[in-house]
Design a protein that fits this description.
Chain A is an all-alpha fold and 648 residues long. Chain A is built from 22 helices and two strands. Chain B has a five-stranded mixed sheet. Chain B has a five-stranded mixed sheet with strand order 4-10-9-6-7. A two-stranded antiparallel ribbon of chain B has the order 11-12. In chain B, helix 1 packs antiparallel against helix 2, helix 2 packs antiparallel against helix 3 and helix 6 crosses helix 9. Classes of the chains: A mainly alpha (648), B alpha+beta (358).
Amino acid sequence: MTQVDTEHAAHQYAPPAPQRTGWRRWLFGAGWPRAIWMTPLFFCIGTGIVVFFRWLGGYDPIWDSEPIVVVGALTAAPIGFLAGLGAFDYWLYYLSGRPTRAEDHSGHGARYWTDYFRVNTDHKVIGVQYVSTTIFFFLAGGLLAMLVRAELAKPGMQVSDTQTYNQFFSVHASLMIFLFVIPAFAGLANYVLPLMIGAPDMAFPRLNALSYWLLPIAGVMMLSSFLVPGFAAGWTNYVPLSDTQPYGNVFFSMAVQWAGASSIMTALNFLVTIITMRAPGMTFWRMPLLVWANFTTSLLVVLATPFIAGSQFFVMFDRVLHTNFFHVADGGYPLGYQHIFWFYSHPAVYIMILPGFGIISEVISTFSRKPIFGYRLMALSLVAILILGFSVWAHHMFVSGMANWLRVPMMITTLLIAVPTGIKVFSWLATTWGGRIHVTTPMLWAMGFVTMFVIGGLSGIFLGAVPIDIHVSDTYFIVAHIHYVLLGGSLFTIFAGIYYWFPKMTGRMYNERLGKLHFWVTFVAFNITFFPMHIIGVQGAPRRYADLGAEYANWNLVISIASFFLGASFIVFVYNMVVSWIRGPLTTANPWHARTLEWQVSSPPPIFNFDEIPQVVGNPYEYGVPGARHAVMNGDRVGDPENVRAGE
Amino acid sequence: MRRGAIVRVVVLGVVLGLGATAVAILIPWLPDSASDQAEEVDFVFWFVTAICIAVFSVVASIAVYSVLKFRAPPDDDADGLPIHGHTGIEIAWTVVPFILVSAMGLVSAVALARNEKVPDDAMVVNVVGRQFAWQFMYPPANAPDPGEDTLECDNQSVRARCLTSGQLHLPLRVPVHLRMRADDVIHSFWVPEFRQKQDLLPGEVTTLVITPTKVGQYEVLCTELCGLGHSTMRAAAIVTSPADFAKWKAEAGKQTSGGGNAGQAVFTQNGCSSCHTLKEAKATGTTGPDLDKLPQEAQEAGKPLEAFVRESIVSPDAYVQKGYPAGVMPKTYANLPKEQLDALVQYLVRSSRGGGSR
């Protein structure tokens, strides 16, 4: 929780006097009670709008469940929920001419645990909200993966029917991508990025709060698709299959809108924060690589995410409004969907890994006690990936039936991305070379990431080479590849980040032994689970089969058993986090002796991060350079090696 | 000291490389290669594998060596060497990967160009994918050019002369030009042993070239998620000598043109067996209702058997058997020619009654 200097806060940032008292305030003031009655109210309003327009247009029947679900339940009700919680209060007050203060900090900081359950404008609270929420959805997505593996453990159908099985993997992927990996990175960056650049908060704290609260909405929507005839077309949701699905499909289409809106708002917030709120002296070439990584990622998000929003709107409009984007019979073009979809979803792959690259750079430099090798090339390779990332989408479509001439150019750009990615991997290794390495839990995850990501990257080369891709596309080889880059890749970096900043966020230290146990069980189980998938994929096992038959029964059993260990390793993590947060030993401001700014303030940091904005005077990773400093704080020499240690 | 470190890393790299090579060689990765195109793909596969093993060995050996060698004692407070970079090394690890990926790209592009080429003497086979069955049609030699976006056998005047089958029969060493489309959603044609894969789209024709090189029976798999029967959408691909192929063609032609088993022919040719069980036709699919129980099901629906069977084919959602979801059975069977539909209905009525009395 945030350390709060109550007196200081009260003087300068006194909240406006409450306008109502007693039960009225309880019922009509921003908060959960108001959200609980406003959500159904808005649902009714949405339903009313649909019914009114259907009546006006003379449609029959007037009550049609699909448009009512889309407008009432999936659009209006969430807006009611957000309004009830108070996410729009400030703006509505402003619009309606009621007194507002731009410097209103009444919703800032966390004094009690309940403060994490309201609209909070403190980037540190939002960061913790993000990370905890995404871990909850990670758990849900993981349980769905366990169900998938339980079904595949033996030939034939045992656990579910085939439609339910298709729902398992569809929702598993959607949750992991849209509700875990992407927002988990947004959460970690939300916490540390303003600290790293010496800013008191994000540029738009109220927008920041709103983007967080869109997330649980999207997640609940994805999960509740199980309550209706479900969403089972895969997270890719290809037309025309999605068009023939029951109306659970619109739950996916709309959940993507909410999650996507959240992503875009956060990305804009990061961009403006990084561009305008860096501390004096923090030039672009002095920014920590995590900031660089989130800068490039945010550009990707802002440019690409509207495309998936568009693709899902088209699918939904085709269903609900009977438009003809993709209906072949009426002149629609199904392949167009794939182009639009992958124009987002390939850059999305980098959205899901570049922030991880940033985390790994921080962790490896800190625990090798060495400057990042080739800092500028590291930053430039992020930019190269950003640019190349937009020119490779059709490598997901080598067998799709698109124009054949597109294959070779897309193969060339795809293979070229290996060059900047290789630069990053080699530079991390060079950073460790000759260092004084402390193998702590975050460092274990980081080194685990480097090796696993290399395997995922190399299998990516196989997939980039068109003739091999034609053979292995839509097989278990793909499943293996994406799990090596998203689980061995992104997830490992998220764990590295969580363990690395846990003492900063909570002021307490996690249990190192349990952290290492968590790593090793995950690492071993992960490899036994996913490496064999390369083999059965090349041998001929197609993905998304509810039943793979007797041919692959042995491997499938091995994979399933290993995957249950992988699932169990998560329990160690949650136990460690929860117990350490409550009872872990108190820690110092800078337990890792790191040089970046977030470690130069208390753990957890003060409510507005810095008592005085620091003056940045040097590079962030000057380990071993005599007399080098990153910043001067409070006129003091905090941040140089002598003082970091003296200040403990 | 420095030289000693490099020697040790190289030794470690060689050991790891040998390990990875063993994994590549000892595990049976690629399935049998049964087409000319597969040979091209396999060459690219092993070419890329060799390069990847080398890259992996370099990275893994440095990572392992670093962590073991440069590990600091727990209470150590010192910093490492303040190395900020090395222009020469950085240029090297930009240029070398660039050369490697260029080589892999070149090899791939050549193989792709060869595998895409349609030989002039290629035999055309039409493939139609529908939930959840494959249909293969052999147009007559003199079929008119159908143009880019339709199949030869979609032409009404050609249709009757097309040989239709639920199995893909191919003559050895004859290049085959598959021209394919989907009836409903996107499907994908794949035979692992041929290494060739291509999506089938509704409203568009996609193509694939295969030159089989080994006699045998393989499996056609659908590899694009196409609904709840996706994993049952399989068919046999049978490669025989050209003489056996001609014999099969002649016999299968007779069967379609009438005779006692016209209904059974329609049943197998349209892939009904991938989803339904019917003892008479040796069909064992379980995605859809058991057709041996048709009389009982008609009773439950309260309809006369023949009318019930016809309605269930033409308009499958009119009555849905309990325990099976609606909207699964393709609606496209309504387009079967009238005589084929009649034959199919008669066949189902007859064989299910036979099944029921047993």
